[in-house]
User: Fold Putative ABC transport system permease protein from Kitasatospora cineracea.
Amino acid sequence: MSAPAPWVRTRLRTAPLAALLTAALTLALVFLAAGLPRALDRGADDALHAFLRSYGPVADSVVVTSGIPVGGDPSQRLDDTTDRLTGLIGPVLPLDPGGPVSGRLATGARSLPDPRLDRPEAVAPEFALAYQRGARERVHLTAGQWPDGAAATAGGPVQVVLSAAAAETVKVPLGAVLDSGPSVVSPKARLVRQQVQVVGFYAVDDPSDPFWADLGCATKTCQNMTPSRSPADPPMAYWYAVALTGSEWMAQLPVWGDGAEDYWRLPVRVDTLRADRLRQTSFDLARVTSGPVSVQVVTGSKRPDVRISSGLRSAIDTARQRQSAIESLTAVGPAGAAGVSAVVLCLAAALAAERRTSELLLLRARGAGTGGVFRRLLGEGAATVLPAAGLGVLLAFVLLPTARWLPAAVAAGAVTLLALLAFPVRAVLLLRGPRAGARPGRRRVVGELAVLAATAAAVMQVVRRGVAPLGEGVDPLLVAAPLLLSLTGALLLARLQPALIGLLARRAGRRPGAVGFLGLARAARGGGGPRSRPSVLPLLALVLAVACGAVGATVLESVAADRAEVARYTIGGDASVSAGLNTALPAAFVTEAGRLPGVTDSLPVWIADDVVLSLGGGASVRVNVVVADPVPYARLAGAAGRGRFDPALLAASPGGGRLPALVSSDIPAGEFNLRLQGGDAADIRVVGFADNTPALIGSVGPTVLLPSGPAADFVSRFAGPAKWMALGHPDDAQLRALAERLLGPPAAGLRPGHVVRTATSEVAALGNDPLQASAVRMFWVSVGATALFALLSVLLTLLRAGPERAAVLARLRTMGLRPRQGLALILAEVLPQSLVAALGGALTAVCCLLLLGPAVDLSPLVGSGVSAGLRLIAGPIVQQAVGLAVLAALAVLAEAAVTARRQITTELRAGDAR
Assistant:
């Protein structure tokens, strides 16, 4: 007798399509499960690196400074200390392979009163002297020579080289000897004339090289400002530059300044830091700056006054706070997609078990035990699930490389285990059936009550204490609450759906025609026989998909709306153009700007910030005066949320030749006198109060708002409007081009000029943070994955009842059912379930937003502080619900097209039990 064929091989050959679909589903789900954690890690790491690099190379380094040691070769001692620092700090922190930067800097710049040098505001320029090891290799001389080391022992002026840009700006001739005047040198208290000789000019090979971060003014001329001691002594600009010298002149640097100090900057490789290990990195920095490593540096360097500091630790602490604040929100989207995918897997397992029920019952009748059946089904699943899962993990690890692998492995393992066990466990439960005396209804009620209790507890905790109260990272309750609410909604709908659809079926039965009644009656029974009932899994999958997709889409919509509100509040409208200092906007610009496409409200605003308001009794206060057309300005204030007021207040004339005025609340009501700086005056009467007016962003002091019509005579004393403001959607590039054409170049750095601000650019700036962009991108991926799972659940639901439905249609066709009536029957059977699920998912999403929305802080995603929580927006919820209904309709049409091509003889086979 030949040996029986292996079970797994036989089953795979018998149903290759089912095995292929199982493998494809497992591959997709495992890839998503392993890829989402790795994508989150990559996004967090990239955001961390960009955030730390924004602090600059000095803040991203460990900086060590010390006094000047006595004795020895200064250059050699500088190098020895560099080697020691690298050996002590390198094993603790990842240092940049480019190496540390070291040198000596004179602690103080000297003024050069030479009359040949340029003086912007009659203030003599200042030079600082420095030696930085390796500077000679990163520059090339454009004139002259490098400082002569042999001349250092002969005395005389300190030889230096100066950047060609600084020499051209300050007008320093080559070979010039610059004298800073006599100074007292300790300890002998003798007068010494401090002189430098500029022996060469150089140009830096790469000004953006972090090597020059310590000596930024060595590559260019900087413009500093003198301190202001009184209003009568305003700050004045002067030139400042750093001149470089050779190592042989290091001993002369303390004489030039008020002493000197040696410095070492050890750059940390921020690109190797990981977002999941920031806490440990902060501890390592503490060891270096104030822990055991710092003790070894101080005691072993044999240098006076050693100081170790790093701005990287505070930057990392800030990054940790940002990351923990956004992690909870970021996890909501993937958690919803994971919940839907788990239900889809269980739905697929239930479909497979129902398809093979007769086969399994036959095995059981022939003496197979449940344990044996379980092992055979487990082996069958392993042959398809494990290779697909391994390929999915491999793809995720190759396509999304990142250092951390454990979360991805755990997620992939959980999905693989669920895909492997779902079908065997479901099959064993079908084989065992209900126990004698057991009441399945009671167990279902107990399970539903447990889910309801868990949902109520989670929601109450989130509402009571908020989200992640102490910034502890992912909040499990916030992640679980939407899923639990969706599960509760699905269970409630599963209880109500048969009654609702049954009511529709009874109403359809009273009308002529049997197609609608038959379809609705089958829908009320879940598509089965007379005593069957709808399965909870299809409804749960659809409700979860709609609810989680709607919540994720609402988060994205709320973030966009909040950013638009913040941008409007920040600039006082949708666009504004401010004239340069002591200038006004020409009438041609105001006219052309108002005609730009997208501008709905355009108004010029006259502003004076040096006006005296007489309060009577000799008292007065300096105020800011804003003059504008009250009607569009009121619309602007309402849209920006700054100082809303009724424009009718400024339309009424108070009489007596006085101008109506709205003032800030720190000015009392009454009649007052306004006096401009030139002596012109105007009488006003307070008709209302309005704080925080949109034309004055960031200004301090009381404000007075006057209408431009009655105040026309007062406005004529101004040079022109100081600001143009608008509502609408003007194009940022067009507005900037118009302003540059009519107003000249914009303000940049210390250069005066006009300033253009639009809501579009502000929104783009708010969303430019890589951490926020990564979180928003993850929400989009989650919403897309949820939509795909919704489509898959619809298809699985149709496949579950497809064969039985095809047999019913075939029988009805033998009785005269037309193809168009067959399509109506399928629609009447399937669409009510999908519509109920879509409506239930939408209502569940509304409950989630109403219950959890106020506790969710969207500030980390918005990029600015916002007081409102997650708002209820109808658009995303309706889109998800309608999208599911459309998907269901398209799937039904596709199934009807396939079913229509089947022959009646194919479905009506002798002995068929369907």
Remarks:
- The first helix runs from residue 7 to 14.
